[in-house]
Amino acid sequence: MHPAMQARVDGLADLRARTTLATADFCALTGRPAPAQNVRYQVVTKGKAYHIVEVCTGKTKGFCFSYRAAINFAHAMEAAATRKLVGRQ
Description:
Blueprint: H1 3-30, E1 41-46, E2 49-54, E3 60-64, H2 67-87
Antiparallel strand pairs: 1-2, 2-3
């Protein structure tokens, strides 16, 4: 990817993370429950394979040939994204 485009993508990802954290902080201050977090990765059947698709971009992040493996992979990617988001501040 072109460096300028990559810088923009990284900047937008940081802004998205800050938005999520700011919303959670605001909800904690006002005593409201935090909004439910949407699913980041979805398993989609494509022929004989199961693709793991990132919902916000529509890009395929991986694929598996068994449903159980695809679900486990999507859960692992979801957990890694959550850890990455929580680690940033």
